[in-house]
Design a protein that fits this description.
- The complex is a heterodimer of chains A (168) and B (417).
- Chain A is of the alpha/beta class.
- Chain A has one domain (2-162): Aconitase, domain 4, CATH 3.20.19.10.
- In chain A, 27% of the residues lie in helices and 18% in strands.
- Chain A has 7 helices and 7 strands; from the N terminus they run βαααβαβαββββαα.
- In chain A, strands 4-3-2-1-5-6-7 form a 7-stranded mixed beta sheet.
- Chain A is globular.
- Helix content of chain B is 31%, strand content 18%.
- Chain B has 417 residues and is α/β, with parallel strands linked by helices.
- In chain B, helix 6 (172-183) links the parallel strand 8 and strand 9.
- The interface between A and B is large, with 43 and 52 residues.
- Iron/sulfur cluster binds at residues 65, 99-101, 120, 122, 296-297, 357, 360-361, 378-379 of chain B.
Chain lengths: 168, 417
């Protein structure tokens, strides 16, 4: 798999929590993911939902997605068009949730990535490269479990397909 | 080679001999979702053709995050959750019963050595009861309910040993804030943090729950505490005889060890907008506050209400401060009434809201106004957390510090009162 999309960076770079991704105040107000996508990242980047295009990528530093277990966070990013996230590290629950809903996360150095540049993620060769900066970084292949979940389109389709967990 | 607590529990529940780093599919003993996460879970369960929970001791949904319903939208969601639960053999903890992380332990359906998951990040709270519990997303909890199992990567363990006695007006909340300040918001990501030592042995179950509740704020997956007399008598108080727990072996492999001297800890605050932005309360003393909040799954238990009430007894909340109290459960509220704790709080000018999450996550019961400062016993101070994104500043602290600050109208070191 190979993905190509524009990079979006934010302030702060580290510890972007699930409240920043999608505020808890929408928890009970909006259940439609496309509607929720209109508010994604709004507390730290008010016009992000307007700027983002299908296939774009979120770039971050350490501990992306810390905080609540709300699965609305990766779902809203995916509904907004985000195809992958590239960060130095992730919070545990967010990591699982993203693969569970079929959104791939890549872990590598990201300091070199310029906001707005076109980034390519090559999953076979474990390489991220930037067209604008000319930079690149390598990443370890995704854990087997995560690869299987992505191939099946997420956790629920995986269970439906295998009648349980295929890696048992 | 010996095993850690999590290696033992996951080995037992997966009927395998597993070690840190292995991926296992393990039986889940109990699972839970709350009103903010149930809707997505119900969607997934419908897709799976779910009938009844396969988790060993069943499953609960808790209506606590926006309850009683403040709007037609929430009422619709609550209605849907109740109907689904009733049709599928799921226990409903309804309006006013309390917050999920108090009700699940009180239900007596989770026991030492169990593996528990919940669609709420603070599910790690039950680690206080000598078990492994963790927060997950709605899809994972749906998968656990439907199959009775879930996949886990066995985490490495950080062993945190705490000795020495806590000083005046200093408690479990100050201790866990001090640890988070030192370890950082991602310092224990993915790990199991095992607690032990003299300070833990002499700590009440309420204090242990406060600490276990916040291990996720340093990224941890599980936060198991030891099994001892405190655990046994806590179970006895809810009518259950527990017969022993799980401990790590002396020769278990810990990825990291840490020794903490509790007597060095003083009252702490986590200043906006990061939980690991921790300082001594004196650093911020004098900051004016407009709202003081005592409650949540971190500090809404009887001991928390009692220490705050002691401080407030015969005193009054400062003019211009709204002090809101949310007991963690109906049972706790009843005990607080019986013990005169509720009266002290009310006479001092505090308001008691429905047992549940209260204003913690900004969906009801006390959303602060633009530009206000809040001192709160909650576990998170992220920007916008309490429902308002226009620069509300949330300072996290202990029940004593919150009570002292409410009395003075500004952040106050409780040792001064
Ligand atoms: S009290 Fe706050 S942190 Fe605890 S479960 Fe409720 S909203 Fe979450």
């Amino acid at each position: 798999m190979r993905l190509e999309g524009r990079a979006h960076r934010f302030k702060p770079n580290d510890d972007i929590n699930t409240d920043y991704i999608i505020s808890g105040r929408y928890k009970f107000k909006i259940s439609d993911m496309d509607e929720l996508a209109k508010h994604v990242m709004e507390d730290i980047s008010p016009d992000f939902a307007i700027r983002v295009r299908e296939g774009d990528m979120v770039i971050a530093g350490y501990n992306f997605g810390c905080g609540s277990s709300r699965e609305q966070a990766p779902r809203a990013l995916k509904a907004a068009g985000i195809a992958a996230i590239v960060a130095k590290s992730y919070a545990r629950i967010f990591y699982r949730n993203s693969f569970n809903i079929g959104l791939p996360l890549v872990t590598c150095d990201t300091d070199w990535i310029i906001d707005g540049e076109v980034v390519t993620v090559d999953f076979e060769n474990g390489k991220v490269s930037g067209a604008g900066s000319g930079g690149s970084a390598e990443f370890r292949p995704l854990p087997k479990t995560m690869q299987v979940l992505l191939e099946d389109g997420g956790l629920i389709p995986h269970i439906k397909k295998h009648g349980g967990f295929s890696f048992e | 080679m010996g095993k850690t607590i999590v290696e033992k529990i996951l080995s037992y529940n997966s009927c395998s001999d597993c070690w840190a780093g292995d991926v296992v599919v393990a039986s889940v003993d109990y699972c839970m979702a709350q009103d903010g996460t149930s809707k997505l879970m119900i969607g997934d369960l419908d897709t799976l053709g779910f009938e009844t929970p396969k988790t060993r001791n069943g499953m609960a949904v808790v209506l606590d995050h926006s309850s009683p319903s403040p709007s037609a939208e929430v009422s619709r969601i609550h209605g849907e959750i109740r109907r689904f639960a009733n049709n599928h053999g799921i226990t409903v903890h309804d309006v006013g019963d309390g917050v999920c992380h108090q009700l699940v332990p009180e239900s007596g359906l989770i026991l030492p050595g169990n593996l528990v998951v919940g669609a709420d990040s603070h599910t790690c709270t039950y680690g206080a009861l000598n078990l492994c519990s963790t927060g997950l997303g709605s899809a994972d909890v749906a998968a656990a309910a439907h199959t009775g199992k879930l996949w886990f990567r066995v985490p490495e363990t950080h062993k945190i040993r705490i000795d020495g006695s806590l000083g005046k007006c200093t408690g479990a909340k100050d201790l866990i804030l001090a640890l988070i300040g030192g370890i950082g918001a991602d310092g224990a990501t993915y790990k199991s943090t095992e607690f032990c030592g003299e300070t833990i042995s002499s700590m009440s179950m309420d204090g242990r729950m406060t600490m276990a509740n916040m291990v996720v704020e340093m990224g941890a997956k599980f936060g198991p505490f030891p099994y001892d007399g405190v655990t046994a008598s806590w179970y006895k108080s809810i009518g259950i005889t527990s017969d022993g727990g799980v401990d790590s072996d002396d020769d278990a492999q810990f990825e990291k060890g840490m020794d903490v001297d509790a007597s060095d800890v003083v009252p702490k605050v986590a200043a906006p907008h990061r939980v690991d932005n921790v300082s001594d309360v004196s650093e911020y003393s004098g900051v004016e506050v407009q709202q003081a909040f005592l409650g949540t799954c971190t500090n809404g238990r009887l001991e928390d209400l009692t220490v705050a009430a002691k401080m407030l007894k015969g005193r009054h909340v400062s003019r211009g401060v709204r002090m809101i109290v949310a007991p963690a459960s109906r049972r706790i509220l009843i005990e607080a009434v019986k013990a005169g704790v509720a009266e002290s709080l009310l006479s001092a000018g505090a308001v008691i809201v429905v047992p549940g999450c209260g204003p913690c996550v900004g969906t009801h019961a006390g959303v602060p106004s633009d530009g206000e400062n809040v001192v709160s016993t909650a576990n998170r101070n992220f920007m916008g957390r309490m429902g308002n994104n226009k620069d509300v500043s949330i300072y996290l602290a202990s029940p004593q510090t919150v009570a002292a600050s409410a009395i003075c109208g500004r952040i106050t070191d409780p040792r001064e009162l």
